[in-house]
Amino acid sequence: MIEAKNLTKRYGDKVAVQDLSFTVQPGRVTGFLGPNGAGKSTTMRLLLGLDRPDGGDATIAGRHYPDLPRPLSVVGALLEARAVHTGRSAYNHLLCLAQTQGIGPARVQEVIDLVGLREVARKRAGGFSLGMGQRLGIAAALLGDPSVLILDEPVNGLDPEGILWIRNLMKYLAAEGRTVFVSSHLMNEMAVTAEHLIVIGRGRLIADCSTEEFIERSAEQQVVVRSPDAERLAAVLDEEGGKTTVDGDGALLVSNLEAPRIGELAAAGGFVLHELTPRRGSLEEAFMELTRDSVEYGTASAPHAEGDPR
Ligand SMILES: Nc1ncnc2c1ncn2[C@@H]1O[C@H](COP(=O)(O)OP(=O)(O)OP(=O)(O)O)[C@@H](O)[C@H]1O
Fold first, then answer.
1. Which of 41, 204, 205 best tests ligand 1's pocket when mutated (most atoms within 8 Å of CB)?
2. Per its UniProt record, what Pfam families does this chain match (predicted)?
3. Where do the DSSP E strands lie in 96-228?
4. pTM for the structure as a whole
5. Which atom of ligand 1 is found nearest the CA of 80?
6. Which atom of ligand 1 is the closest one to the Cα of 9?
7. Which ipTM was obtained for this model?
8. CATH number 3.30.70.980 is the correct assignment for the domain at 220-279
9. Which of 49, 57, 194, 220 could potentially form a cystine with 65 if both were Cys, beta carbons 3.0 to 4.6 Å apart?
């Protein structure tokens, strides 16, 4: 388990993290989201003892990071992707790391296989692509078979196959009972990977809830309705409290009324329906909605794509 209690970190006048409290539970993937500059990396650095908080407390498995006797066996971390500037082979890079913690070569080979680097393990890691570098970073994080994983943007630089691989790996590690805490900018990816979310903006907590609840709470739910008599039907629905807009290809997008109610109103009015589809909001929409006031470098009015119904 990871615990942050009233964490605060300032850089000069800049408050990067402010009075932030949350816990990350084992057994599920927890996504860590926030707009650019929200304080995600700073929080992860504080958790890992790489920076000292100005206030509050951060513990992993009940202890401060520097007090962990063999840290790699408790927590594995991947911080923001950087190319590995090493003349060593991937194998030797991991072996050196392993030796500092009394981990044997058999485990090195195991993690190399686990992350799919077997064929390039003897090649110079400095020449690795960003995606291969990420895999190597993940191998290093897994070296001590830790119960807690902290991953900052792990899918950065991975191709679709790599993204799928890491999604499944994170879910697998969580299903084994580990604590998996992962930040990402890819909302669609988080929506299918993380069961729980911690969302911050300007260093403060915005949400700490299940991914499903987050979307339900924040994204507008709509129903897509198609009818040959769309215009008259829209008038009826609006009269009953619905908010109806027409999208580019003539479908009605109805909010404020649930699909069953729309079906009943259509039947009562004798309207033919060709479609009646509840459309769940996306994590991206929910995120934009909830973090709108917390965007550090936002534009005053972001241009919408053409055909965008908003
Ligand atoms: N070493 C530092 N010195 C000064 N300011 C810093 C430092 N590290 C971070 N900051 C500032 O603190 C704030 C939080 O930064 P942080 O990198 O933690 O955000 P983030 O959520 O990880 O952002 P991103 O998604 O862009 O990586 C930002 O305004 C950033 O400019």
1. 41
2. ABC_tran (PF00005)
3. 148-152, 179-183, 196-201, 204-210, 222-226
4. 0.82
5. 27
6. 12
7. 0.95
8. yes
9. 49
Q: DSSP per residue over 173-206, as a string?
A: HHHTT-EEEEE-S-HHHHHHH-SEEEEEETTEEE
Residues of the chain with CATH 3.30.70.980: 220-279
Ligand 1 neighbourhood includes 39 CB (under 6 angstroms): yes
Q: pLDDT, tens digit, for every residue of 59-106?
A: 999 999 999 988 888 999 998 756 566 788 899 989 988 998 889 999
Q: What is the pLDDT of residues 113-172, one digit of tens each?
A: 999 888 888 888 888 888 888 899 999 999 999 999 999 999 887 888 888 989 999 999
Q: Which ligand 1 atom sits nearest the alpha carbon of residue 203?
A: 14
Q: Which two tokens stand for residue 304?
A: 């919408």
Write out the H or E segment, with its range, that includes residue 33.
strand 29-33
Q: By percentage, how much of the chain surpasses pLDDT 70?
A: 93
Q: Name the segment(s) of the chain with CATH classification 3.40.50.300.
A: 2-217
Ligand 1 site, residue 41, Cβ cutoff 6 A: yes
Q: Is 40 in the pocket of ligand 1 (CB under 6 A)?
A: yes
Identify the burial level of 114 via C-beta atoms within 10 angstroms of its C-beta, where 0-12 means exposed, 13-18 middle and 19 or more buried.
middle
pLDDT of residue 310: 35
What tokens appear for 57 in the block?
């407390």
Residue 215 Cα to ligand 1 midpoint, Å, equals: 26
How far is the centre of ligand 1, averaged over its atoms, from the C-alpha of 41 (Å)? 7
